[in-house]
Amino acid sequence: MLHIENLYKSFGSNAVLKGVNLHIYPGEILVVVGPSGGGKTTLLRSINYLEKCESGSICLGNNYLLKDGRYASKQDLKAIRRNIGLVFQNFNLFPHLSVIENITEAPTRVLGIAKEKATQDALNILGFLGLSGKANSYPYELSGGQKQRVAIGRALALNPKLMCFDEPTSALDPALTDDVANLIKSLKVKGMSMLIITHDMEFAKKVADRIVSMDQGQITNEHMYDNEKTGS
User: Fold this and answer.
1) What residue stretches are annotated with the ABC transporter domain (predicted)?
2) Would you tell me which of 57, 177, 208, 230 could form a disulfide with 5, CB atoms 3.0–4.6 Å apart?
3) Which of 128, 159, 190 is the last residue of a domain?
C-alpha cells in the first residue's frame, strides 16, 4: 500500500530524515515509535506532502508521490493525496462548523460530492463512530475523545486508502486510550491500512501488526505482532 525508499529531508543544515526505508501492506497497521525529535512527525508530514523531501521515493499503491527525488505533477499530487487521510494530533476541527459540517466540508468542496450524499455518508460515519447524537453539536461542546472521533470521521469521509494518525492518544485522558484502540481495530476489520505515530508503547502494542522504532532520522528496529487485533 505504501512504499518509501531512501527518503531524505533536511531543515537547513539539520538532517531530519536520513535515508528512511519503510513499507505498509494493504490492511496493515504499522506503528512508528521513538523519542521526540527522531523524525516521526516529519516522516508523516512528508507522506502527506506537508513537507517536501530532497531525495528518495514515496509510492502509494502504484502511484508515485515522489520518485527518485522528483515530485509528481500538481494534478497527480492532488489525486494521490486524496487517498491519504490524516488525523492531526490536536484534531484541527473547524470551530465555527458543526460536527456534520466538519465531516462534509472536504467531500463537497474537494471531491465535488453532492451535499445530500455527503450528509448521508457523514451520518453513516457518525453512526459507526458512536456519535449519531452529535451531528449538530459544535467542537467546543465535545469531549476530547469525541473530538478525536470526529477528526477520524472527517478523514474517513474522503474514503482514503491509507489513514495516518499523529499521536492519536496524546491529547486524551488515559481512560480513553482503549476507546481509540478499539476504533482503530474496527477500521482494520474494514480493511483500512494505517500508519500511526505515537510515544505510547502500550497503545502501540494494542493495535499494531508491526512496530518500527525511529531515532535520529532513521528506522532502527522492527517488531512483529501476531496477536488478534479485532478483540479487546
Assistant:
1) 2-232
2) 57
3) 159
The amino acid present at 2, given as its one-letter code, is: L
SS3 161: coil
Are the C-beta atoms of residues 150 and 102 closer than 8 Å to each other?
Answer: yes
Which residue range is the domain that position 116 belongs to?
87-159
Q: Coil, strand, or helix at residue 7? A: strand
Domain's final residue, options 138, 159, 180? 159
Strand 193-197 vs strand 210-215: parallel, antiparallel, or unpaired? unpaired
Domains: count for the chain: 2
Assess whether 101 and 136 both reside in one domain.
yes
CA distances from 4 to 23, 59, 67, 68 (A): 6, 6, 10, 11
186 C-beta neighbours (distance < 10 Å), count: 13
Burial class from Cβ neighbours inside 10 Å (0-12, 13-18, 19+) for residue 114 reads exposed
